[in-house]
Amino acid sequence: MTPTSNGWEPVIVGFSCNWCSYRAADSAGMARIKYAPNVRFIRLMCSGRVDPLFVLKAFADGADAVLISGCHPGDCHYITQNYKTLRRFALLKQTLTALGLEDGRLRLVWASAAEGTILAEEIDNMVADVRKLGPLNWKARTAQRVTAAAG
Amino acid sequence: MSDGKEPRIGVYICHCGSNIAGTVDVEEVARWAGEHLPGVVVGRDYKFMCSSLGQELIEKDIHDLDLNRVVVGACSPHLHEATFRGACQRAGLNPFLFDMASLREQVSWVCADRAVATEKAKALIAGSVYRVAQNEPLEPIIVDINPNVLVVGGGVAGIQAALEIADAGYHVYLVDREPSIGGHMAQLDKTFPTLDCSACILTPKMFSAGTHKNITLLTYADVEKVDGFVGNFTAQIRQHARKVDVSLCTGCGVCQEKCPKKVIDDVFEAGLGYRKAVYTPFPQAVPKYPVIDVQNCTYFQKGSCKVCEKFCPTGAIKFDQQDELLTVNVGNVILATGYDLFDSRRIPQYGYGRLANVFTSMEFERLANASGPTNGKVVLRDGVTVPQSVAIVHCVGSRDRNYNSYCSAICCMQSLKFAHLVHERTGARVYNCYIDIRTPAKSYDEFYQRVLEEGTVFVRGKVAEVTDAARVPGEEGKLIVQVEDTLVGHQRRIPVDMVILSAGMEPRAGAKEVGKIFGISCSMDGWFIERHPKLDPVATMTEGIFIAGVCQGPKDIPASVSQGAAAAARVLGLICRGRISLEPVRAQVNQDQCSGCRICNNLCPFNAITFIEERGVTEINPALCQGCGTCVAACPAGAITGTHFSNTQVLAQIDGLLSVMA
Amino acid sequence: MKYSYFPGCSLEHNAEAYDSSSRAIAGPLGLELVEVDDWNCCGATEYISLNMTAALALIARNLAQATKNGLDQMIAPCSACYLNLSKCDRYMVTTPELAERLNTALAAGGLSYQGGTIKVRHLIDVITEDVGLKTLASKVTRPLKGLRVAPYYGCLISRPGLRISEHNPEYPVSLDEILEALGAEVVDFPLKTHCCGGHMTQISESTGFDLIRQLVKGASDYQADMIVTVCPMCHLNLDAFQNGMNNFFKTNYQVPVAYFTQMIGLAFGMSARQLGFGTSLVSAGPALAKIGEELPAAAPAAGATKRKRDDKSLPMPTPLAAGQGKGGSGKGQGQEVSR
Known about the structure:
The structure holds 3 protein chains of 3 kinds.
Chain A: E1 12-17, H1 20-30, E2 39-44, H2 52-60, E3 65-70, H3 81-98, E4 106-110, H4 116-133, H5 138-150
Parallel strand pairs in A: 1-2, 1-3, 3-4
Helix pairs in contact in A: 1-4
Chain B: E1 9-14, H1 26-36, E2 40-46, H2 52-64, E3 69-74, H3 77-90, E4 98-102, H4 104-108, H5 114-132, E5 141-144, E6 149-152, H6 156-167, E7 172-176, E8 190-191, E9 196-197, H7 198-211, E10 215-219, E11 221-229, E12 232-239, H8 254-258, E13 262-265, E14 273-276, E15 278-279, E16 291-292, H9 298-302, H10 307-311, E17 324-330, E18 332-335, E19 339-341, E20 358-360, H11 361-368, E21 389-396, H12 411-426, E22 429-434, H13 444-453, E23 457-460, E24 463-467, E25 479-485, E26 490-496, E27 498-503, E28 505-507, H14 511-518, E29 545-547, H15 557-577, E30 579-582, E31 587-589, E32 609-612, E33 617-620, H16 630-634, E34 640-642, H17 647-657
Parallel strand pairs in B: 1-2, 1-3, 3-4, 6-7, 6-18, 7-10, 18-29, 20-27, 21-22, 21-27, 22-23
Antiparallel strand pairs in B: 5-30, 8-9, 11-12, 12-17, 13-14, 15-16, 19-28, 24-25, 25-26, 31-34, 32-33
Helix pairs in contact in B: 1-5, 2-3, 5-17, 6-7, 6-15, 11-12, 12-13
Chain C: E1 2-5, H1 9-12, H2 16-29, E2 32-35, H3 47-50, H4 52-67, E3 73-76, H5 79-94, H6 96-107, E4 119-122, H7 123-131, H8 133-138, E5 148-152, H9 174-181, E6 185-186, H10 200-203, H11 205-221, E7 226-229, H12 232-240, H13 242-249, E8 257-259, H14 260-267, H15 285-292, E9 336-337
Parallel strand pairs in C: 1-2, 1-3, 3-4, 5-6, 5-7, 7-8
Helix pairs in contact in C: 2-14, 4-5, 4-6, 5-6, 11-13
């Protein structure tokens, strides 16, 4: 993993479901898999709980990217709720792209409880991608646009 | 804070020996939390927070420092959230005023850099601190446990579970797909290592299950749908039409005798024997009532015959009988659905299906069985010739990356058993071709020694091919087993009369769908997933659903029986308690804010959300709600709150996580 | 459908029948074959074991030459040519350093080749995948009824991972299916992927002859009228050395060997002469006579046979259907047996 030249590291907020993906993170830990430490997870009961508001708040508070993870479609502990996550994610992504957010800053990953290695790999890939995109600085960007629009 | 008081938060960072402290600077995190995070009154670090001393630290601080919130940074909450909630509760603090950050699985074990790990730990603790300040006290939801139990699968594991629960005085619905209970064990001839006759030891249990006043036997039936939650499940069961009125049938068997339509029985007889279109699977079937195989019955296919009806002395044959749908209410479910045998046709180089005298293990069991198609005579496919040499191939479809990587646990003992039986019945020369000999349990290795002494030839090598293409005169008319004898270091071609393939165990063909009905999932290999592979093999992630027997993974009869009994004990424990508390993580609608848009109405797979027409608002049933929060996220008015995962709490956690930036 | 065509050395000489029969059936099958200009020997099975880079350069020259046709697929009927060309192309994709060296060699001849440009196909796969068994069967005017054939793949094209069309490398069925579509009675030949010995007859006569003997004996034991092959090397060993093998072992086998393209030609109504029959050492005369003869009595229908009352024999399992595999037999299907 090559860090950026000025030492900046992306900060990523992760939303994980209690059942599959949180256990996947646990199982990556139990297997002592070393992966990028940039993701700070929030545990929710289900990926379906992820309100788009949370994602916007994370960006506004300074996160450079957001990761949502849950059970594979068909395996949701609450049966069908991850399909709703998928739909919400699609719309959210469109909205954020329209607001100027680059592709790669919002990612959805399915991971089952046994897939610690896969989750770790996805996180490594995501961090590498976000490093290339650089810091988000949402507030500064939005302020710039407002100023530009106003003047 | 809702109670108007200022938060007084205690933060405890666990060293977990050197597991966390080895990478994360735990003293620094504790100190920093105490000095910098809002609301934190004390920040401590300790070697093992989960120990009684660690917990006492928390309890003491709650009393002495008047803490009203607690945060612990340690291992995964899946391990010890309950432990620390317990500590809070003992000290008089509501257990939901507690939050836990995983500094081990998510930080120290996955990050090697001390500075980076410490920073991440701080961020996670900050997240928890900001979040816990918004936590509300909650009371668990108490539900009654319906003492009825549903056991799905009437093999030896399911029967054991059913008997244990029924003997304890509670009612069991024992459902099986086949016309009789007994499962695969009923097909076997002798069981290792004692060489007890399988039917002899199983049938008394089957009989008990069939006649027990506390067991409702539902054979030739499938569970189609399950609703509800632990303590309160509703199951819809389809009782397929036997076309026989069981209240009139005496089990005399005249219908089977007179039926003119014979078909190959590829379930019980493993394709080696025949049955009639109206049949009971085997003589000791429980229940004894026959069924009509509609696909093969002349009457149902062509409209003629009806011989069975004609000869039935009690008029029990009812051609127009329909499937029945039953609904049962139970508190707990035990799944004991068993396994399917690996299909040896998938390994064409072993010749099963093309070469007549290659048999599978189950076919051989039927051959050797005294009530089988040859009355227990071990003969070749022509039904007459006794083999003079037999090769037994281990690990067919198991321990093989091309098919299944796992070991099927019973095949070595089974192969040894076959070697012994062949020897005993025919005096034939026996070759066992194996990779390893696995004989771990009680009296198993002694059985191996015995078979060695009987003169069986053991060849350590994975069989490459079974062929009838002879190369030299001695091989004409024989099956040649080509195998590398690895202990000697060269290839052998062993000419034999008969080959028995010890085929492995596989999950049932429909296991994934069955799992979905009950809300449990399957592993990568297809077996049902247990709650913990070492410490909790009979429970699942879904409360109230238990698994037992081979459906959880390959195992022998004693292990299946043990698991059946274990699952029964867990269920009886729940029934004894009479009621359990459910996590109060639920959604609720503020009906004053609800505009009646009904966006949430279709989002609940548990049917917890209903719309009240008269008032034009939505309502959520807290008993059915499972707390996933999907409707909470969907409500455009924010009228639905999710307890313990409210917007306020999660937004606060985001603030906290991002308050620590380099 | 247009393809580049790589006959290879054998098809120009001892396997001429393979070449003429392939060209003869190409038209009816809708295949247009454009021979690669100035192709060279592929090095067969020996050169690559002596000097891999030089051997691969030799093979790569053919790939480079083939690009001049402007077609992205190339048919090689000979299994050794097919294997060599496929391997070389694959190596040039997976190992860029090797591709560089080979291209340096090719540059000396003013050529170059980028791995992955040409898809190398064996003729048998083009027929099963691109033409399809249905189309093949529809063109049959003279079904090969009464002819028992043993399909023989040889070891080269049976390698795992080489041909995606073949579901199970231990038990390939593409040739079996082609012969079935032609109406022949296909023998379930257990040695269909066993090695013919390659050039073993030159290195150790006894070993080579023994391998040939096993195959011929196997076909004979299974009462096959002919062995049908897809490879000139196999044909050479089984046919040209059959009498040598007979002399060595004092046996008397006379099992004719034919190329599968010749069988397709026969079924399409073409003459034996036109398809190159008559150039082999073991005469196919008696076998061919069979398809000019009256039809034999129909074989008993599979399944509904009447069982004798004292028939003690045990039923056989049904063969695996395509796509079947995982899991048990399900809820008692029961095959019909009338009494």
